[in-house]
Amino acid sequence: MIALHTRQRVVSLAILLLAGCESSPPPAVDFAFERLDQAGAVYAGSGDFQHAPWNCVRDRNTGLVWEVKTAGAGLRTATHTYSWYAPDNEHDGAQDYRGTPNGGQCSGTNCDTAAYVHAVNAEGLCGFNDWRMPTKDEFATISDPRPPLKRPTIDSVYFPETQIGEYWTANDYAFKYDAAWAWHFEFSHDRVDWKKTPKYVRLVRGTQLPPAP
């Protein structure tokens, strides 16, 4: 009987310890988005929100403007993928930091991040020509990790067609020349992968945010 009571106390203590280790839910995020039309003006219509008659979204908290993907065929189709490529990066023999050109599946341009940035800037999306790849810290500002976990972890009212998967960031991986950081919109976190791996892309423009402390 003493042994049984002892086991019961051990089990009860273990349950209490596990309960104490549970992480608290993430703090509330006050998003402040507004839709922009192709001219860069605030989109005033209602329209069919599932098919995004707006082209961009401005985050009033950060000042950044984000590309909105499209469902139909074209340059900005949501399901297109791209390899990570930065042609101005260092390359010296086997240590080639540039990544992989034209390694994804897309249309309207070569299927790598550098070519896509160039094509969107040539198009003048929302009246701007300074689109770039976002950093992982910038992706974190539009990702919504609050429970219950939504998939994708983003406000789809403003960002329809977001894929449940990984999007390339601008960040190299410091410890491996042929790897870079991606942001995962299924679990709302960043992850390192090989630059040759095809992934989704969403561009941003505006003053780059400083890295999170």
Describe the protein's architecture and organization:
With 213 residues, this protein is of the alpha+beta class. It has one domain (34-205). The chain is built from 3 helices and 9 strands, in the order αβββββααββββ. It has helices spanning 2-21, 113-123, 136-140, and strands spanning 33-36, 56-59, 65-67, 91-92, 95-96, 166-172, 179-184, 189-194, 204-205. The strands form 3 sheets. Strands 1-2-3-9 form a 4-stranded antiparallel sheet, with no helix packed on it. Strands 6-7-8 form a 3-stranded antiparallel sheet. β7 (179-184) and β8 (189-194) form a beta hairpin. The longest helix has 20 residues, at 2-21. It starts with a helix and ends in an 8-residue tail after the last strand. The model is unreliable at 1-27 (pLDDT under 50).
Compact description:
With 213 residues, the protein is an alpha+beta fold. It is built from three helices and nine strands.
